[in-house]
Amino acid sequence: MSITTTVPPRPVHDPDSPLDWSGPLVPGEVVLDERVAPRAAWSGVVAAADVLTIVDVGGNQSADCLLYAADDTAERYSAADTIAWQGNVYVRTGTVLRSNLGRPLMAVAGNEVDRQDTIGGACGKESNTLRYGHHTAYQHACRENFLAEGARHGLGVRDLVSNLNWFMNVPVEADGSLGIVDGMSGPGRRVALRAERDVLVVVSNCPQMNNPCNDFNCTPLRMIVTRP
Amino acid sequence: MTTGRLGAEGLANVGQARADARGRASVSDWMPYLPANTTPYPPDGVDPDTLTWAETVAPGGYTHLRVARGTRLRLEDVDGEACASVLVHNAAQPGERLNVADTQKIPWQAYLGAGHPLLSGDGRVLATIVADTSGRHDAFCGASSDAWNEAKYGDATAEGPSPSGHALLRLAAARHGLESRDLPPAVSFFKGVRVAADGALEWTGSAGPGRSVDLLAELPLVVLIANAPHPRDPRPDYVAGPLRVHAWRSRPTGLDDDVAAATPERERAYRNTIAYAGLAGL
Ligand SMILES: [Zn+2]
Fold this sequence. Notes:
The complex is a heterodimer.
Chain A: E1 29-36, E2 41-46, E3 51-56, E4 63-69, H1 79-86, E5 96-98, E6 104-111, H2 125-131, H3 142-151, E7 164-166, E8 189-195, E9 199-205, E10 221-227
Chain B: H1 14-22, E1 51-57, E2 61-67, E3 71-77, E4 84-90, H2 100-105, E5 117-119, E6 125-132, E7 137-138, H3 146-153, H4 165-174, E8 187-189, E9 192-195, E10 201-205, E11 211-217, E12 221-227, E13 243-249, H5 258-261, H6 264-280
Antiparallel strand pairs in B: 1-13, 2-12, 3-11, 3-13, 4-8, 4-12, 5-6, 6-11, 7-8, 9-10
Bound molecules: zinc ion (ZN).
């Protein structure tokens, strides 16, 4: 159905953008295979030992991601514990994604990008007013997606913490300068996450159009769960 | 400081127990000083009669403060061995709390220092670092977790010899009706790390004894502080030192102040904060 709307235009990718839907990074029986539209949210429970492949279909599309222990969402992803435990701020193959109690939630079983981010946080209507100005306050943002998708699982503002940003590039320079720069991913690149216990995964397909976290071109994601 | 049975006599009745309890009045190296102007350690340049809180937090201890907007808080690392892992919540609306990602991303700067705002996820400044004589801080690693302390020291419980920062923050939070869900990653003062080109954390540790950090409350706050070793502290033993906390009345940052005018991002953050406080009558 095509309607006329007076809502300000929503960002969407260039119709000529190359899209590579790729496939699972780790072999196994496919138990879930879903597409996430540009700007949209997604959630799912990945059972212990199953592997979630996230496909960067259009390239350099940030997949903002939070993790919760499925049986007790008070235990959730902790960027700080993940960083402290491995002694490195970047996420790569082998990184254990730890909870606020320091325990493993998932582990990076495969990765086709030099380094993945967990220090850049999520965009929000409010933080957009700081970074870009109050003229951006009306725009949709990852925090909206997290709140809306989280509410389906009983989660609220208290459950929003520093997140992962798959396919986003946030270097820390020698003087401490930190920021979102051009990505190192490309169409069809993937990351694979093995669940160390049953984990609720919440993803925002970042709708940000004021920085290069999605190359200013909102593209889809593909979520595939395989059972080895 | 005396603990244990004071004398040889029995404490079989209430009168004896009361006399024994009253005989314990003393001082310790870690205690609050009430009223605050009786502190043995008044901060330099501060009129003691403006002090609203004074305390020394024990190694492996914690504190929690409910502070008014415009309160200035000085944390002092007495012997160079303190590590203050700090969380701040908007007391009027505790779902708004420290967001370390925004605190690093919005100023485009990972390392905390004088002038740096501690931002919430709601586009506002909860507190400003208005003075810093240490320069050794960390906004990456958070407070130590239970699993880390169990692996490193064999115990993480608050009653044990090596409490985790997170265990202490949970107890501090509980005093304000806050739970584990209310504890996002914290910032740590007086123990520093730097990030190498490959992302590796390099330990810079302590700047030495007597260093301090001043925080200015830009909204009414709940401040939670755990004083436990930093998780990247390379020493195998649990080394912590006393942490001194003083608070006094000051005024919140205005748009004309240097910290607000420093960058366009910070200026907008203070604009949001001042508008919120005005609308809410804070
Ligand atoms: Zn976003």
